[in-house]
């Protein structure tokens, strides 16, 4: 990671060389021209949940490609921190998903590594819709 100045950081993945730029949000002296570090936290939760659900779906011989998550991050003040991440998941599947399979997928999501790593004070609100 390199701090480029003007509240911007350049992150480079050590194996792939993929680069991500972070920028401070407008409400914290930034330009909001890229993800903020707290945006990445919320997005990491969503990506981790979907990845673990994908692994679980694969075990069930389901393909959930095309599934989406709308992410909303809620900030608190004093101290400034993420206090809630709201996720609206739309799970796509060609084959019908049974109630038992839904339970397994949702359990997998709520127990992904990022969800388990976040402080208990960060509320994780997740709604699942199956199509």
What does this structure look like?
The protein folds into 2 domains: about 1-35, no CATH class; about 35-130, GMP Synthetase, Chain A, domain 3 (2-Layer Sandwich). The protein has 3 helices and 6 strands, in the order E-E-E-H-E-E-H-H-E. The chain has helices at about 35-60, 100-110, 115; strands at about 1-5, 10, 20-25, 70-75, 80-90, 125-130. A hairpin with a 4-residue loop joins strand 4 (about 70-75) and strand 5 (about 80-90). The radius of gyration is 17 Å and the shape is globular. The mean pLDDT is about 95.
Q: What features would you highlight for this structure?
A:
single chain; alpha+beta; GMP Synthetase, Chain A, domain 3; 2 domains; three-stranded mixed β-sheet; 6 strands; globular
Give the secondary structure arrangement, pairings included.
Layout: E1 2-5, E2 8-12, E3 19-23, H1 37-59, E4 68-76, E5 81-91, H2 99-110, H3 113-117, E6 123-130
Parallel strand pairs: 5-6
Antiparallel strand pairs: 1-2, 2-3, 4-5
Would you report the number of β strands? 6
| Helix proportion range | 25-40%
Provide the CATH top-level class of the largest domain: Alpha Beta
What is CATH's topology name of the largest domain? GMP Synthetase, Chain A, domain 3
How is the main sheet built? Answer: 3 strands, antiparallel
Cross-sheet strand order for the largest sheet: 1-2-3
Task: List the domain count as a whole number.
Answer: 2
Q: What is the terminal separation in angstroms? A: 40 Å
| Estimated structural class | alpha+beta
